[in-house]
Amino acid sequence: MSQIADEIKNQIKKRRTFAIISHPDAGKTTLTEKFLLYGGAINLAGSVKGKATARHAVSDWMEIEKERGISVTSSVLQFNYGGYCINILDTPGHQDFSEDTYRTLMAADSAVMVIDASKGVEAQTRKLFKVCTMRHIPIFTFINKMDREAMDTFELLDDIENELGIATCPVNWPIGSGKEFRGVYDRNTKMVELFSDTHKGTTQGEVMKIAIDDPKLKEWVTDTQLSQLKEEIELQDGAGAEFSQELVSKGELSPVFFGSALTNFGVETFLLHFLGMTTSPLPRTSDQGAVDPMEEKDFSAFVFKIQANMNKAHRDRIAFMRICSGEFEAGMDVYHIQGGKKVRLSQPQQMMASERKMIDKAYGGDIIGVFDPGIFSIGDTLTTSAKRFAYEGIPTFAPEHFARVRQVDTMKRKQFIKGINQIAQEGAIQIFQEFNTGMEEIIVGVVGVLQFDVLKYRLENEYNVDIRLDNLPYEYIRWIENTDIDLDKLTGTSDMKKVKDLKGRPLLLFVNDWSIRMTTERNEGLKLSEFGR
Ligand code: GDP
């Protein structure tokens, strides 16, 4: 049976690979910085990559991509803390938001959701959350910015439950907010952790803890605050969901923590609990059943992101893969399932805090980027196992912006078609065609509008084709799951559009939610999905 070496097993067991999701400005970067601080990966918070570049305008971003040859917006940060080896997957926000953001979640074993205490659940969190629930991975909530005026605690919890449809279980409970913020009460230990904003960028200084029934607590917490806390806790104990590790593991219950990333309050508490409750790399589904990293001794991984080189002198790309089992060694030969041949994985790299560095070894749970001569596609499997299994593919996510695309110079039809198809194959955009007509009209769909600019830029620079993009009013796309449906007979609303994707699968484009509902009502048995499998 299994001859998996203890060393490999131990390495995998201590891996914790998670993504941080949030709406822009909720504090994802700040929280990540503080995590790194505890890992000793950086001396002073504030040097995490990405922040400065994430704020760059599109043109600057392109320049940066060109200069460095690879993406500065995508990354994985690895550091060690408390005996764990932690991989944080970055999910870009703002204008960088793209399909890659979703795909990144496919590589994570759990997610940390950062919520701004004054705002509750926001749009981007909602979108990313959907992908997490689709995968049933554990989701942890960090309610941030308690040093600012916050929404009522019950309201915040209700918001998460109603908006996202997940039960919550607060591990600690805030005492006041903004100027009145005094700390958090740990429901387990019944201790109050007192807030102090003097730690900021440091790990020094113990957090003061004091029992809830200690008379000295009154030196920090007013009588009103204390009685409010007791009242709230009583209410929560009576009506709230009880903690259950099983439900947390299934992604049905989210442990909630309160804190203030900026002042470094509640961060270590969160990290300690989180690392204990989250999971080491779990089995992943393949066409030959689940592959368990504790049983499969051979190396296996799947590609979840491909970063094209923007420099036309170097058409090479970086393929990011999630290792699912075994040990990776630089320069090793692996079998590329979809390509049907052996390939050598060269120039493996990993992000360590703010630097990209070459690596020699990596293990199940880790993310590596390797040189791709243009042979890999999103979802591909690589393995040294003789069993040659293929991991379950990565779904296609629903684009939300659509445009009709035309080449300016009609003589360049061939380059145009070639370019746009290649860029679509890399997963940088999705392309669609009118259902019953030929290749005449090409519709491009993207998750984030920056992808339009990338398309235009790349077609101009790599294929020498100028294009014109005309925005279309569609905002919703649905894959048709029924295999037996006659698309010609399908009746929708007048503003609905029938298209097909690269694989010839039928899809519907809608302008609004209402049209989707009408169409479902008008066609009995019609099954629509937000994800293309
Ligand atoms: P991101 O867009 O989610 O990565 O958010 P950032 O980490 O960049 O934070 C956005 C802004 O909120 C920055 O100005 C931070 O300094 C600020 N911020 C982050 N965490 C806190 C916090 O706990 N309290 C306060 N008052 N501000 C915070």
TrEMBL record:
The keyword Metal-binding does not apply. GO terms for cellular component: cytosol. Keywords: Cytoplasm, GTP-binding, Nucleotide-binding, Protein biosynthesis. InterPro entries: EF-G-like_DII, EFG_III/V, G_TR_CS, P-loop_NTPase, PrfC, RF3_C, RF3_dom_3_sf, RF3_GTP-bd. GO terms for biological process: regulation of translational termination. It is found in: Cytoplasm. HAMAP family: Rel_fac_3. This is Peptide chain release factor 3. It comes from Sporofaciens musculi. The gene is prfC.
